Amino acid sequence: MPTHMTTAAVGLAILGLVAGARAQQAFTVEQLLDRSSIYVENLVAKFSRVVAEEQYTQEYLIAAPEGSGKFLGAPKMAERRTLKSDLLMVKPAGLDQWFIFRDVFEVDARAVRGRENRLAKLFLESRDTVSAIERAHEIATASAQFNIRPMGTVDNPMLALGFLQRVYRPRFRFTLRGRDTEGGPDMWIVEFRETARPTLMRGTTNKDVVARGRYWVDAASGRVARTEVIFNSLGTDSIVTTSFAMDERLGTPVPVEMRFTRTGAKNEVRGTATYGRFRRFEVGTEEVIQK
After folding, report:
1. Closest residue by Cα to residue 104 from 161, 160, 155, 47
2. pLDDT on residue 12
3. Under a CB-based contact definition with an 8 Å cutoff, are residues 223 and 137 in contact?
4. Domain count, the chain
5. Entry pTM
6. Is residue 233 in a domain?
């Protein structure tokens, strides 16, 4: 939107968007969400045993001196880092949860471990799924130490998508905001805001951290083309935006890019992750689930 646009012009643009949306909308927001929930739950089932390769470039920026102590428009990049990782998406049989783990194997083109698929092997070889999950959490926590700065746990390309599962939907308020014609002839924007307490995400002092954001949804199929989720906690704003596209080998949409920002008063972390080499692994039929 041009910066010279007047308030009146902005108001007219919004009114035009709303009027167009009402004229062409042939469904309720609940009907659209029902389609999206089915779409997401089918996607979770297909992603129950998938590993992808993630290339994640991170930048640490500091406020320029002329910023007078505020992170205003002219930041200076202080450091840059590139991580390569295996990203495991798994929903163990017998458990309701869906887990995503990151295992870094390369930092700035320097290997930090072997290239074996050790996360997948945990679930292929272990007869105790709970122990496998605990070990995977340990690996993911160790991998987080390679981040350019502490980034929390929300830089997850599938996080916002998970909120559309029917078990979580009652925790949120959803509002239809009109069509996005650039995204497709039937692409609609749905805003969401978490209203239930305690919140799904918790701060370092166990305080509520409210999730809000937007989905870009195809009205006919419920397909989610893009997600955006925002968190505000302890003076920082974190934004995670993920784009999805079809992967022909898996025959299902996959995340192709995630953009992450974590902004404070005097510094900011930015990250761009891309995904490829999606492959599915199979869990042995003799696996024993111990709850």
Report:
1. 155
2. 35
3. no
4. 1
5. 0.84
6. yes
